[in-house]
Amino acid sequence: MEEKVMQSCDEIPPKINQPSGYLEKDFLPKEMGWDEWYCQAAQFKNILYHSPNGFAIISLEGRFISSNPALSQILGYSENELVGMNFDHITHPDDLEEDLHLKDQFLRGQISIFKRKKRYIHKDGHHLWVQVDATLIRNRKGDPNYFAAQFQDITKQHELEKQLIHSQRMESIGSLAGGVAHDFNNILTVVLGYTTLLEKNSEHPEKILQYSEIIKKTAERGSSLIKQLLTLARKVESDLKPSILNDLLSEAAHIASSTFPKSIRVISDLPQDPIWVQADHTQIHQVFLNLFLNAKDAMPNGGLLSIRLRMEEGEFISPEKTQKTAVIEILDSGTGIDRKTIRKIFDPFFTTKEPGKGTGLGLSIVYGILENHKGKIKVESELGSGTKFSIYFPVLE
């Protein structure tokens, strides 16, 4: 018999825009030669082994079946240590609930792929941020078989984003400073004025009570304003928790109406029933205030800032999924934006403001924050016709 010679496996791998035959046949090379099957298997194994990103096969129960060296470098565990380990063993406790929820969605067939930033616990105990891209692989019968996941260490990127967000947040406070000073001057004027009236009416108890109540309410208004500005200035990790969107929007609208020039009228149309979302209070405040400040800058001669909130059901967040969505519309009667600018408006460092009056980070950070909250944003505008920003949040069921 003539001995079969295995073909060389050094050629460039074939196109991978479609699954290879051996993948579709449960790894049995029925319609392709053994040598071709062997080479494709070896080539793909080499690609995953030498990939700079971590890669792992994970069981439906969440246990690592196999991994590549890059994942060991990211997490600090060898492949032998990872095999058999459950993902919850190395997941940050605050991120575990979301992971378990996503796993259930996978197994119920609600999703087949997801991207997520989460924290892992390195073998030496420190926390790191990782971008995870996971896919559910099914067998020939269509039943769930295992998870294929890719991991990218984004810890440095995450720290840089935190610094940029804090820097831009302080820029927002600087933009509000003039209005804050004016508002506090009014507050102090009221307090000092009624203090003088108290002295002049020391023998009239009913007037003393009346003036004391006015001073108290005025001081509380000042305290509330300072509290909200300090909340905006805080430098903290993301803290996503169930929140009432109506309240967050109302607080930000109050800051705007308290600090913007009197030539700008701020009106809000918010529903009475609470709309619950998963949100970080500080970051969502920043989203709203950034958009409000942009509206203020677009109305140098005054105008109307309109803020609306409603709940709808549709495909706002994902075209593949209908879900309840909170829709926020922020409309101004300002100068508007041309189409060329709209195409670049969320790009980092892009700004139409004069040098020294803006970093160009505001809207790019707004976009990133909403992406982390699984939300979306779009803008509609024409020169001379004002601007409308629409924000979409998935509602907690």
TrEMBL record:
The keyword Metal-binding does not apply. Its EC number is 2.7.13.3. This is histidine kinase. PROSITE patterns: HIS_KIN, PAC, PAS. It comes from Leptospira saintgironsiae. PANTHER family: C4-DICARBOXYLATE TRANSPORT SENSOR PROTEIN DCTB, SENSOR HISTIDINE KINASE. The lineage of its organism: Bacteria, Pseudomonadati, Spirochaetota, Spirochaetia, Leptospirales. Residues 179-397 form the Histidine kinase domain. It catalyses: ATP + protein L-histidine = ADP + protein N-phospho-L-histidine. InterPro entries: HATPase_C_sf, HATPase_dom, His_kinase_dom, HisK_dim/P_dom, HisK_dim/P_sf, PAC, PAS, PAS-assoc_C. SUPFAM superfamilies: ATPase domain of HSP90 chaperone/DNA topoisomerase II/histidine kinase, Homodimeric domain of signal transducing histidine kinase, PYP-like sensor domain (PAS domain). It is an enzyme of class 2 (transferase). The keyword rRNA processing does not apply. GO terms for molecular function: ATP binding; phosphorelay sensor kinase activity. Residues 40-110 form the PAS domain. Residues 114-166 form the PAC domain. Keywords: ATP-binding, Kinase, Nucleotide-binding, Phosphoprotein, Transferase, Two-component regulatory system.
